[in-house]
Amino acid sequence: MNGLVSIGAVIAMLLGVGAIATMVRPGTVRWRWLLAAAAAILVNDALLTRVYRTIPDFLPAAEWNWQGKLLALGVTLFVAAHPAIGWRAAGLTLRQAPRSLVAVVPVAAIYVALFVALALMRPEDPATPEALAFQMTMPGIEEETFYRGLLLLLLERAFAGRRRFLGVDWSLGALLACAIFGLAHAFSYGDDGFAFEPLFMALTAVPSLLAVWIRLRTGSVLIPILLHNFGNTIGFLI
Question: How far apart are CA 208 and CA 224, in angstroms?
């Protein structure tokens, strides 16, 4: 149950930020939305791990976590369909905000250049057909739908206040969505206690900031999905 301890610590950090924000600026935290975000993080992690390996593996021949990703994606879409949330409000739409695509091009180019540089510095071993199929689809679809879609919306509703920067309105919730995505990859708990990998944090949280900017500018997770899957795949192709 190490994964449960790890994600529990991340949720505790999130709620701690909410408590601090409440003390510093009373009335700026909408706790029902913050608790909904915490619950969404827990459920997403549980589904990705087949409820911490308690659900049978129905795809035992698969080397990659298709089952966990599909379960998590299905629940994210189901929750986002609730009238209090809505797919479009969560960015789960193909429609792009007017005049946003031209503005997105340079940011997308930075994202692509970053992952091409990483791939050149640390090329991957040749991929199996399954690995290539998985990396070209599931990480971007599931993770962007959750982190830049549902979770971002919940956290933006949880924290009041916006600051306009580089053409989009940033909230504390948007920054926390990036941090949580980074921690999901860099923070863990094992036999030796808690571990934190700063490099993994940087390599996930920084691209997450770019993806959040694109999501906020376009109103859609479509381009972040495409960029995410490109970043996961380019190392196998170079």
Answer: 9
pTM: 0.94
- Could you give phi then psi for residue 187, rounded to 5 degrees? -115, 130
The structure tokens listed for 3 are 């994964």
CA distances from 78 to 66, 71, 86, 147 (A): 18, 11, 10, 15
The amino acid that residue 132 corresponds to is: L
Q: Which residue has the tokens 């739409």?
A: 93
pLDDT in tens, the chain (238 residues): 778 899 999 999 999 999 999 999 999 999 999 999 999 999 999 999 999 888 888 888 789 999 999 999 999 999 999 999 999 999 999 999 999 999 999 999 999 999 999 888 887 777 899 999 999 999 999 999 999 999 999 999 999 989 999 889 999 999 999 999 999 988 888 878 888 898 889 889 889 999 999 999 999 999 999 999 999 999 888 7
